[in-house]
Design brief:
This protein has 16 helices and 2 strands. The chain has helices at 2-24, 39-54, 59-72, 82-91, 99-102, 120-125, 132-144, 150-168, 175-195, 223-236, 243-249, 260-269, 282-292, 297-312, 319-324, 328-343, and strands at residues 198-200, 207-209. Helix 2 runs parallel beside helix 16 (328-343) and helix 8 packs parallel to helix 14 (297-312). The chain is globular and about 55 Å long. It binds alpha-Diphosphopyridine nucleotide and magnesium ion (MG) (3 copies). Residues 126-127, 129-131, 135, 164 line the site of one magnesium ion.
Length: 345
C-alpha cells in the first residue's frame, strides 16, 4: 500500500508538471509525463471504436483493429500466447476471424482474461435494452476473436454484465442485490455449459468427455457462481479477508476465472471503510484496493475500475489521474458515443 500511495504521489507530481508544461507551451504535452496504458486499454479502445464505427459488432473489423493495434505497438504487455492469434489473423487477412483463436492451446482455447479485460464498451453499448441475452451474445462474439475457452467467454460475459448492472445502480449500491443479479444470470450460463458434453477440467487438464465416464472432473461445475457466493461471505465477515485468502479463494492471476471475481470483489469491498484509503472517493478506493491485491494488477484494476466508473460516473475520476492517463480524452469521447448509440434507435 505504501507503494500505491507513493505511486499516487508520483502521479500527482507528474500531473503538476504536465499542467505547467501545458500552460507554458500552448498545450504542447510531453509524453514522458503521461502514464502509458497497457494491452487492456489498447484492446478496449479497438472494441469501442469498432462498435461505434459499425453501430454494432463486425467480427472482421474488430479482428483487424486488434491485430493492427498490436503490430503498431507491441510493447503494451500482451498475454504470452494471444500474439499467435494476431499473427494468424494477419496471415489469413481476417478471412475467418474466429478460427485462429479456436486453435490456441491444442484446440482448448485460451482461458486468459484478455476477453474480460476489454469488454467494458459492450456493457455501455447495450445499456438501453436491459436485455441480458443480447449483451451476452455481444460479449461472447467480441471475446471469441481471441479466446474460445468457455471460461474466458463466461468471464467476459460476467464482466460486461457487471458494468451494465453498475450503470443501473441508482442511489445506494446494495452488494447482496448486485451479487444476486450476477449469480442469477451466471447460473443459467454455467448450467448451459454443463449440458455440453465436452468440458474441461479447471486448469492444466485434458479434455474430458462427460458421457464416457472414463475421466470425471473434480472441479466445480459452477465455478463463477461459487466465487460470487464466496464474495458474499467475504463481504459479510467481520475481519476483512487477507490478500492471501483472496488470492486462494478468488484468484488474482491472468485466467478469467482467477481475476474477474476479484475485480467484482474489489468494486464491492471499496464501499466499506478501508483505513488506509479513508480520504479517497469510491472510484479511487476501488482502483487502489484492486491494485493492492497483487497478481495481475493492471487487469484486475482495469476491470474493477470499469465497474466503478459505470456506477459512480466521471465526476469521481481524480483530475490529477486524468492528467497523467494516456488516451483519457479518447476514452471519454468513446464512452459518450457508445452511450449515445445505446440511446438512439
Ligand atoms: P493469452 O491468451 O496469451 O493468455 C494468457 C496466459 O494464460 C497464456 O500465456 C498461458 O500462460 C495461460 N493460458 C491461457 N489459456 C490456457 C490454456 N488453455 N492452457 C494453459 N495455459 C493457458 O492472453 P490474454 O489476452 O488472455 O492475456 C491477458 C493478460 O496478459 C492480461 O493480464 C494482460 O495484461 C497480459 N499480461 C499479464 C501479465 C501478468 O499479470 N504478469 C504480464 C503481461 C501481460
Ligand atoms: Mg495488461
Ligand atoms: Mg443491456
Ligand atoms: Mg494484466
Amino acid at each position: 500500500m505504501v507503494r500505491i500511495i507513493h505511486e499516487d504521489k508520483k502521479i500527482r507530481e507528474a500531473a503538476e508538471k504536465r499542467k505547467k508544461a501545458n500552460e507554458n507551451a500552448d498545450g504542447e504535452i510531453s509524453n514522458g509525463e503521461i502514464w502509458t496504458f497497457t494491452d487492456d486499454t489498447a484492446m478496449a479502445r479497438s472494441v469501442a471504436r469498432s462498435l461505434i464505427e459499425h453501430k454494432g459488432f463486425n467480427a472482421r473489423d474488430m479482428a483487424r483493429r486488434f491485430t493492427e493495434e498490436y503490430f503498431n505497438e507491441r510493447f503494451r504487455g500482451y498475454g504470452g500466447s494471444v500474439t499467435v492469434v494476431f499473427q494468424k489473423l494477419q496471415e489469413t487477412e481476417y478471412e475467418n476471424p474466429f478460427e485462429p483463436a479456436k486453435k490456441q492451446f491444442e484446440g482448448e482455447g485460451s482461458y486468459g482474461n484478455g476477453g474480460a479485460m476489454r469488454i467494458a464498451p459492450a456493457g455501455l453499448f447495450g445499456y438501453k435494452d436491459n436485455d441480458f441475452h443480447r449483451l451476452r451474445d455481444l460479449a461472447e462474439d467480441i471475446t471469441k476473436i481471441t479466446h474460445s475457452h468457455y471460461q474466458a467467454i463466461q468471464g467476459a460475459v460476467l464482466q460486461a454484465y457487471a458494468v451494465d448492472l453498475a450503470l443501473r445502480v441508482e442511489g445506494h449500491l446494495d452488494a447482496d442485490e448486485f451479487l444476486n443479479d450476477l449469480i442469477k444470470q451466471m447460473k443459467l450460463l454455467e448450467q448451459e455449459a454443463e449440458r455440453i458434453t465436452i468440458y474441461y477440467e479447471r486448469r492444466n487438464e485434458k479434455t474430458i468427455t462427460r458421457d464416457s465416464g472414463e475421466e470425471r472432473s473434480t472441479a466445480s461445475e459452477h465455478p463463477y457462481c461459487d466465487k460470487l457466493e464466496k464474495i458474499k461471505t467475504f463481504l459479510k465477515q467481520e475481519a476483512p479477508p487477507s490478500p492471501q485468502e483472496i488470492n486462494e479463494e478468488l484468484g488474482t492471476d491472468v485466467a478469467a476465472l482467477e481475476s474477474v471475481p476479484a475485480a467484482i470483489f474489489a468494486f464491492l469491498y471499496a464501499t466499506k471503510d478501508i483505513p488506509y484509503l479513508e480520504n479517497r472517493n469510491l472510484f479511487e478506493k476501488t482502483v487502489m484496493y484492486a491494485i493492492s491485491l497483487g497478481g495481475d494488477t493492471d487487469t484486475i484494476a482495469t476491470m474493477a475500475a470499469a465497474i466503478a466508473g459505470a456506477c459512480y460516473g466521471e465526476e469521481q475520476l481524480p483530475e490529477h489521474w486524468k492528467l497523467c492517463c494516456e488516451g483519457v480524452d479518447d476514452a471519454l469521447e468513446d464512452a459518450e458515443q457508445l452511450y449515445n448509440l445505446s440511446q438512439s434507435s
